[in-house]
Amino acid sequence: MLPQPCATRADDLYLQACQFVLFHHQASVSLLQRRLRIGYGRAMALLAAMCGDILECDADGGNPRILPAALHGPDRLLPHKLAQAATCLSEAPSMVLAVGAGMGAVLGLPERTGDGEAAHPLAARHANGPDLACIASPEGLQQHPASAWGLYGQWLQACRATPPHAGLALLLGWARRLPQGCFVVTGNVDGHVQKAGFPAARVYECHGSLHRLQCSAHCEDRLWPTAWLRPQVDASTGQWLGDLPRCPHCDALMRPNIRLQDDWHWNAARSQRQHELLEVWLDSAPQPLVLEVGAGRDDTALRRLTQRLHRRGSRLIRIHPHDADIHNPDTIEFALGIREALQQIGQHLHGSQ
Ligand SMILES: [Zn+2]
To answer: How far is the centre of ligand 1, averaged over its atoms, from the C-alpha of 246 (Å)?
Structure first.
């Protein structure tokens, strides 16, 4: 017979114990003892506390079984996870914020609707022209330069006209309270992290930036800002109107300094320098809290980086409406819309201060 549940839902290990049970599909005392390195009595008490929460038990408290709704229904551990995420944030000396396409203004067009965002108008504008993926490639630039630059011009206009994701303001407030500060890593090329107020010296844009130009022939390492560009694009055909931007040195077409699909011509120098700054910062903040927001499983560059930091001992909090592993006992993952998750964590954060 199991002991009666007492205050063990407040046990520091309660959330992780529940995650182990759900992740391994086993309501087992020995699993908890082994994975959490705790004694028999504490493991029994933890399991007993789960009855009614994620387990169902016999009337005498014995024979615990996982509630099917706990495995397949809405996240029953959400309140515990929100509280734990808020605790992590309030206790962390430093943070790496990994910002994925879910918070972006431009790329990842078809996926963005998942967070309740409006579909991007570019998808409709290019419905009758060459395929978006085809023209947004180094070959596409050479074969359809007016279409490719029409697309880049519209992206640039969208980046300039759209405000940053509302969640970035919330994250900036949290970042500013950290004693050792925050470093942002983003797979987005929209420059919106800086636009939201994060200092440029602590941003690593791993796919480059739409706000820099490079020579498509890569004749030199120099990059040019895009502030002077005033894109004129035919709204019906998506074609760039007027002269195409050309390299002042070799007269080859210019292109945005963003890493495209199968892109051997991307000038990675600026992005590499940002990466070096991140590594130097990590020397002084060796185990930052890692908060990954809106990076799907296909966002491999961001996910590799956050997993590497996690393996080195950092706590990992992940927010993604579809690509979150909510029962993973090693992380705190939220399968919620970004804005909703951040607001709920924020409420716990302010409640605990
Ligand atoms: Zn050139």
So the answer is: 8
